[in-house]
Every structure is written in structure tokens, then in C-alpha cells.
Design brief:
The chain is α+β, with helices and mostly antiparallel strands and about 180 residues long. It is built from 5 helices and 8 strands. It has helices at about 20-30, 30-35, 50-65, 110-130, 140-150, and strands spanning about 5, 10-15, 70-75, 80-90, 95-105, 130-135, 155-165, 170-180. An 8-stranded mixed sheet has the order 1-2-3-4-5-6-8-7, with helices on both faces. Helix 1 crosses helix 3. It is globular, with a radius of gyration of 16 Å.
Length: about 180
């Protein structure tokens, strides 16, 4: 049994093996839309075999507690609205992780990502027991800046040449959100 989070308009969960085609459709339909915000993708990224390997790897990471890589689905669970990932999960005295996300072009600007990430963050703080979730964005990504601000992330720094995105080393603004109930963590 894996985690499934429910919001008013979404279901947030791991994809199952038979849903790899849905993930491939998300990748293909949003290839150009996501290209400026992601690492360069080779053509073999956009294959069913790759989507199947991603679904299998996400399940493995979930079971080992190393990462949570969820799809954000519509209520009927027939289409991927976006993806949300909690990675670099460290427990012990740190209790922190990184947040990453993407949203389909056709669902952009409709509040789906805010809705889904609120549920994910509540789960990460209340159930997983994290103290801190970090999220970083490129300075020209105004949509991500606004989203993270709405979610209560605070700016903590600026990293030059932080990640290689769209084939170029990109600066990033570093943000984090602390668990509002961190005294209980």
C-alpha cells in the first residue's frame, strides 16, 4: 500500500506499472513547455520504455524511503496534471528534503499545483516528520516564485550556476519552508 493524497480536484500518488503510457503522454504533450525548466532530454527519454523505468524506479525509491515521486492526477485519474517530487530526503537531526515539480501546460495558472503541493507539504510535515522542505527556482521563473511564496516558502539565498537546465548552468534562488509544528518533530 502506498500513499495517496486527495484534494478537491486532484489525486496525488505513485503511478502503477500499467500507467506508464499516461506518463509518456505527459512527457510528450509538455516536451516544449517544460524544456526551459528541465535538464536537456535525449530522444530516448520520450519512449514508453523510459516511462516504464521511471515508474518502476519511483516505486523502488518510495519503498526504500529515499524519495517520493508522485503524479498529480485529475479526480478521475485519467490524466496527469503535473508531477511533484520530494528528493534528497535526509532524516536524523536534519529532517529535510528538496521539492521539485512540473505542471502540464494546459493546467498552468489554474491553482492545481498550489492545491496539490499544499497537500503534499502537509503530509511531509505531519506524517513523514520533516522539519524543512527546500525548493529552488531560476530568477526568471516568475510562476515558480509566486507559487512558492503562496505556499509559505522564504528566500534563503542565491546560488550561481546551481543546476544545468536546458543545457546551460543556471543561477537559482534558494527557498525553504519550515514545519509550522517543528516543536513536535
Amino acid at each position: 500500500m502506498t500513499t495517496e493524497l486527495t484534494t478537491e480536484r486532484t489525486r496525488i500518488r505513485l503511478l502503477e506499472g500499467h500507467e506508464a503510457q499516461m506518463l509518456l503522454r505527459y512527457y510528450l504533450e509538455n516536451r516544449e513547455h517544460l524544456a526551459p525548466w528541465e535538464p536537456e532530454r535525449r530522444d530516448d527519454f520520450f519512449t514508453l520504455a523510459h516511462a516504464q523505468s521511471v515508474v518502476a524506479e519511483n516505486t523502488r525509491l518510495y519503498k526504500t524511503g529515499l524519495a517520493f515521486r508522485f503524479a498529480i492526477l485529475n479526480r478521475e485519474q485519467t490524466e496527469i496534471i503535473g508531477l511533484c517530487n520530494i528528493t534528497n530526503l535526509v532524516m536524523g537531526i536534519f529532517k529535510a528534503a528538496n521539492l521539485g515539480y512540473s505542471v502540464a501546460e494546459r493546467y498552468q495558472g489554474q491553482g492545481y499545483m498550489t492545491e496539490a503541493l499544499r497537500a503534499l507539504l502537509d503530509w511531509m510535515f505531519d506524517e513523514v516528520g520533516l522539519n524543512r522542505v527546500m525548493a529552488n527556482y531560476m530568477p526568471h521563473n516568475v510562476s515558480s516564485a509566486r507559487l512558492l511564496e503562496r505556499l509559505g516558502f522564504e528566500r534563503e539565498g542565491y546560488a550561481k550556476s546551481y543546476l544545468k537546465i536546458a543545457g546551460e548552468w543556471q543561477d537559482h534562488i534558494l527557498t525553504a519552508k519550515l514545519n509550522p509544528n517543528r516543536d513536535k518533530v
